[in-house]
Automatic annotation (TrEMBL):
GO terms for cellular component: membrane; outer membrane-bounded periplasmic space. It comes from Bradyrhizobium lablabi. This is Membrane fusion protein, Cu(I)/Ag(I) efflux system. SUPFAM superfamilies: HlyD-like secretion proteins (SSF111369). Keywords: Ion transport, Signal, Transport. Residues 189-309 form the CusB-like barrel-sandwich hybrid domain. NCBIfam families: RND_mfp. Residues 315-390 form the CusB-like beta-barrel domain. Residues 397-457 form the CzcB-like C-terminal circularly permuted SH3-like domain. Pfam families: Beta-barrel_RND_2, BSH_CusB, CzcB_C. One of its GO terms (biological process) is copper ion export. GO terms for molecular function: transition metal ion binding; transmembrane transporter activity. The keyword Ion transport applies. Belongs to the membrane fusion protein (MFP) (TC 8.A.1) family.
């Protein structure tokens, strides 16, 4: 039963082969009319290719390899290189009209082709790099301006190049530094005796108590003070005919003053003509008691510190300013202080002193800022963040910080000359602040500079300089 089927398949294959051979054999004419109903419509039509126009500009490898020639040649396998006409040349770069140059005239002839990735590699003929990208043509007109670089409009849009106008502004630089709150050294005092004494009682004042000037702190007895008081009383009570001169009276009073006797104690002797047994010792100033060593019944030697009193109406903030910012600080500048304990409050003071010595360990200089402290929320040893506004009100020429390309040895900006042309311009910088930089030399007011994607244009400029160096070195394309 299977033999007739096999014979049928063999006959069908022979007929199909014959049909194909007939079609191939008639390659110089149209297929037979009876085949029009057999072959599909797609087999009868061939895609129309645009006819190549223009002169032959080079020949390319027939196998698609990145190999080109200015003249006709064959591959190692004997295949002819394919001719490429002007209309068939393809570039991945956006091309400007072939009849125009960067300056508006007719485009000059191609001098050579450069590497599309910016490498210092040129070719006298069109070629591709290892990634298959076309080398870019360099025309004679594009090298006329040695100081500028031409960037196509499409590339400017793709890279997001932005420009701004150089303008004059009052540049204020804010110097920030850490600091701490300290006591004013001029508002501290100690309570001690100039004679040997004994403390009878101490008033109800302790460490942290706020006292006023003249307020009694303790009651003491001193034998030497009582002896000097008796001598002064004798001089007061002596009659003029007793031989006691006014000079002796002044000497007796001066002895009491040298023992630092309180004025109230001397006044009581003059008023009552009696010698008090104890002396009420007053506070020498307003302030808080920061130390108390006096206790009831103790013996106090001359010079012993019995109380320490500090006035916190005005405090210091000692800030450590970096060495590079020291030249911006001047005495009298306003300073804003924020305490970490009161982050929502800003305390305003002035720079009162720049200390003469640097701190070698941190390379900082210490400055003193005086702050009023009426409600006494500023406490010694609190941490503070200091901001000092420096600078003058006179406007200076400035650009955005992003406009400056700083290599360490030189600083440049890219000047927009219009029509996609940019010129690198060396500048000298001044002060910085508020995201802007002072330009002292190199620019004029209203010059347009690049502030975004300027490093890409700078790379193009460096590439142009490198290619020009190769060209001038004798390697003509």
């Amino acid at each position: 039963m299977r033999r007739p089927v096999s014979a049928f398949l063999i006959v069908s294959a022979v007929l199909a082969a014959g049909l194909v051979g007939l079609v191939v054999g008639r390659s110089n004419g149209r297929p037979l009319g009876w085949l029009d109903g057999v072959l599909p419509a797609a087999a009868k039509q061939s895609p129309t290719q645009p006819e190549a126009t223009g002169p032959i500009i080079y020949y390319r490898d027939p196998d698609g390899l990145p190999d080109y020639s200015l003249t006709a040649k064959k591959t190692s396998a004997g295949k002819d290189y394919l001719a490429v006409h002007a209309s068939e040349d393809v570039s991945f770069e956006e091309k400007a009209p072939e009849t125009m140059t960067a300056k508006g005239g007719e485009r000059g002839k191609i001098r050579y082709y450069r590497n599309p990735m910016g490498l210092a590699d040129t070719s006298p003929t069109p070629k591709k790099d290892s990634m298959g990208m076309d080398y870019l043509p360099v025309y004679e007109g594009e090298q006329d301006d040695d100081s500028s670089v031409k960037v196509s409009t499409g590339k400017l849009q793709k890279t997001g190049v932005q420009t701004e106008i150089a303008e004059r502004r009052a540049l204020n630089t804010v110097v920030r530094a850490p600091g701490t709150v300290q006591e004013d050294e001029r508002r501290k005092s100690v309570v001690s005796l100039r004679f040997e004494g004994f403390i009878d009682t101490v008033e109800n004042v302790t460490t942290g108590t706020h006292v006023h000037k003249g307020q009694r702190l303790m009651r003491i007895y001193g034998p030497n003070l009582s002896s000097a008081a008796a001598e002064y009383l004798s001089a007061l009570n002596a009659r003029p005919d007793a031989g006691i001169s006014n000079q002796a009276l002044k000497g007796a009073r001066r002895r009491l003053e040298n023992l630092d006797a309180p004025e109230a104690f001397i006044a009581d002797i003059e008023r009552t003509r009696e010698i008090p047994a104890y002396v009420s010792w007053p506070a020498p100033q307003d302030g808080e008691i920061v130390e108390r060593a006096a206790v009831n019944g103790m013996r106090a030697a001359p010079g012993d510190v019995l109380f320490r009193i500090s006035d916190h109406e005005v405090v210091w903030v000692l800030a450590d300013v970096a060495e590079r910012d020291l030249s911006l600080i001047e005495v009298g500048q306003k300073a804003s202080v924020r305490l970490r304990g009161y982050p929502d409050r800003v305390f305003v003071g002035k720079v009162a002193l720049i200390y003469p010595h640097m701190m070698a360990e941190t390379r900082t200089a210490r400055i003193r800022i005086e702050l009023p402290n009426p409600d006494e929320v500023l406490r010694p040893d609190m941490y503070a963040d200091v901001e000092i506004a420096t600078g003058a009100e006179t406007p200076v020429l400035t650009v955005s910080s992003s406009a400056v390309l700083d290599s360490g040895e030189r600083q440049i900006v890219l000047l927009d000359k219009g029509d996609g042309r940019f010129e690198p311009r060396a500048v000298k910088l001044g002060r910085r602040g508020d995201g802007r930089i002072e330009i002292r030399e190199g620019l004029a007011e209203n010059d347009k500079v690049v502030v975004s994607a300027n490093f890409l244009i700078d790379a193009e400029s460096n590439l142009k300089a490198a290619l020009k160096g190769l060209d001038s070195g004798g390697k003509s394309p």
